[in-house]
Known about the structure:
The structure is a single chain. By secondary structure, the protein is mainly β. The chain has a single domain, classed as Porin (Beta Barrel), CATH 2.40.160. Helix content is 11%, strand content 75%. The longest helix has 23 residues, at 2-24.
Amino acid sequence: MRKMVWMLFVATVLGLGFGQTALAQSCVPFVGGHLGLGTGSGWNDSFGVESVKGTIGGVQAGCTWQRGQVAFGFAGDLAISGIKGKETSSYSDSFGSSTVTRTAMLDRLSTVTGNIGYVTGPWTVYGEAGLALARVRSEVERHETSQYGTYQYGYKNANNATGWVSGLGVKYKWNNDWNADFRVRSVQIQTISDGSTVASSKLLEIGFQRSF
């Protein structure tokens, strides 16, 4: 997975460097920027709990250049996430019973990516890769019941984490002012402290963007 991210990233950087050189020679037209909103759903397969899924949505912005049928540029996203999961485990013995509830949630996700794509008519098929910054929260609650009474305790933890994002997408330009953008993304998030993977998310998103 990381190898694919690096390949996309290198290809994008090379494309952007080539585009800047051509732009200096007045060979590459500046297509323009865009600003819009996006929403979608996501799920997670390495968050420490089961059935992690939810919605995500936020603001999208970026700029694009084009040379012939090749388009390249950069984009940024700032999203609020409701992707979370919860699992409960219980056990009992002759001394009493205990129930533990674990919750994990991806609160926020920001990405900065380079992209390169192929333009045919109003359609653009593209790949992207770049950096991701997330806010990850976890909670543990424990309930114990015994002959001495009932006890409840737990802890909450929130961490900033960094990682990589890569994806494939399709854009449709239905007029000079508006684009529709559908994309599939893979996000690998690691804790800043020790580099361990805390989230491996898959996202399906759709966005509507105003060109300028």
